């Protein structure tokens, strides 16, 4: 019988509290990473039967922040970085890549809806901007009052106001106003699609570190099967847990 989201939540909190109490930085970072894996399992369980208090998206988003925090504890670059530091960072980057990819997938339908609405809006705005002016050529009135004319009568002299061609009110503006709802849609769309960029960035970072530690990751791939951007969250967790177990053994951590 599959374990519940609440079970994984309690396990994650227990591991996080253990990490909170540690002083040694590598062990602390490793324990936070293990807690993050339980939070990922919690989010995955919530996708099967969501808890009312939180959404899987929120769980994954908060897990991203925990992993980032863990990675700040130990640097994986520079002359003092050990192979274990780099291996831990590569595992964390793999997790971040798949978390961001999953977060995008969870909100993909919203992104498609926003994209269609924005395309329609800007397409219609472009047509409106290209519509012919109610004013005839040569600056002469066609009999229709200009909405920018200070005088309501089309027969009023424009001489006192200067030439229409020099009227600043009719000059193209450098500021484009859009409705608040369109601005919000654009912001939401960018927020969702940025997850794809983050996912690929983190995946490349993981690849670069894995190339520096080929033996470790070749052995891990052989034992667990390689992780890809399309791997399930279950596979990601099992793969990462095995890698963290090897790192714990190598560092002689309890």
From TrEMBL:
<keyword id="KW-0539">Nucleus</keyword>
<dbReference type="InterPro" id="IPR007797">
    <property type="entry name" value="AF4/FMR2"/>
</dbReference>
<dbReference type="GO" id="GO:0032783">
    <property type="term" value="C:super elongation complex"/>
</dbReference>
<protein>
    <submittedName>
        <fullName>AF4/FMR2 family member 3</fullName>
    </submittedName>
</protein>
<feature type="region of interest" description="Disordered">
    <location>
        <begin position="128"/>
        <end position="168"/>
    </location>
</feature>
<dbReference type="GO" id="GO:0010468">
    <property type="term" value="P:regulation of gene expression"/>
</dbReference>
<comment type="similarity">
    <text>Belongs to the AF4 family.</text>
</comment>
<feature type="compositionally biased region" description="Polar residues">
    <location>
        <begin position="158"/>
        <end position="168"/>
    </location>
</feature>
<keyword id="KW-0597">Phosphoprotein</keyword>
<feature type="domain" description="AF4/FMR2 C-terminal homology">
    <location>
        <begin position="3"/>
        <end position="253"/>
    </location>
</feature>
<dbReference type="InterPro" id="IPR043640">
    <property type="entry name" value="AF4/FMR2_CHD"/>
</dbReference>
<dbReference type="Pfam" id="PF18876">
    <property type="entry name" value="AFF4_CHD"/>
</dbReference>
